[in-house]
Amino acid sequence: MKSPLILLILALPAAAIETRWTATGSVTSVTGAGLAAEVGTPVSVKFSYDSGATKNVINNNFIQVLTAYYGPVQLKMEVAIGDSKWTVDLPTSPTDVFRTDARPNATDLFWIAGSTTNGATFPSFPYAGTPASRSVYVELSDNHRPSKLLVADTFPDDSCDASSISSGLGKITADGAVINFSIDPVSVIVETGTPVRVTLEKIANGVRVRWPTEAGVLYLLNESDDCQDWQFSNSYTGDGQDQVVEFPDAFTDHPARRFYQVVRD
């Protein structure tokens, strides 16, 4: 039997707090040539970033609070349509990556964009040709009164009330070609946490996961077969000592590979 490839997810820098969003929707229209998708095909959306972004207040008055974020954003995006995936990697950017519009009596708007103009790279970008410009864009809105999606002048994290989202959309562009898709508001999930550095030890037919803890801090242990779709395993409250968790049948239950991640909640 082949031994599984077991990897660990290392910590982000101490000051970084990773925020992760997931959602689903469907393709609404396709225009131009080079991007292939069928209208009505299910869409899966994921994006994450950290709190190291620099804030740029564009307009802040009694009517509008429009804020842009750039710098070391550590943005990752993935849009999956059928068997195709478009991915974005943007560690840092000199131009706007996020914008928030939080007004007391108007729509809360949050948009995220990874594009060639703000320095993004695209590890996976199915396209018939080599486009001069590419982008992946997601927009979430809260049309309720009062709006609850965003906290004015605060970088979006899990303080956002995702249940208040009333509409969402996105698009993938390559030169003149565009795939437009909707986002189902009910499907949107946001969570924040900092990955923790862990140690893996082989034991007989399994693996032991160990990490340092702080007293009173809650830690979430997640597992994955592909380092993309994480499954919650269990939660543990720190006591200042190392936390040790064993998976005695890991090599039997997951003969190909298994990933483990510990997140500080």
Question: What's a concise summary of this model?
Answer:
Helix content is 2%, strand content 53%.
Structural class assignment? mainly beta
DSSP summary: helix tally: 1
Question: What is the overall pLDDT average?
Answer: 80
Distance between the termini: 37 Å
Helix content: under 10%
Into which percentage range does the β-strand content fall?
A: over 45%
Order of helices and strands: EEEEEEEEEEEEEEEEEEHE
* Low-pLDDT stretches: 1-15, 60-64
Structurally, the number of domains stands at 2
Write a structural description.
There is one protein chain. The protein has a 16-stranded mixed β-sheet that branches. The protein has a 3-stranded antiparallel β-sheet with strand order 14-15-18. It has 1 helix and 19 strands. The longest helix is centred in the C-terminal third of the chain and has 4 residues, at 250-253. The protein has 2 domains: 18-191, no CATH class; 196-264. 2% of the residues lie in helices and 53% in strands.
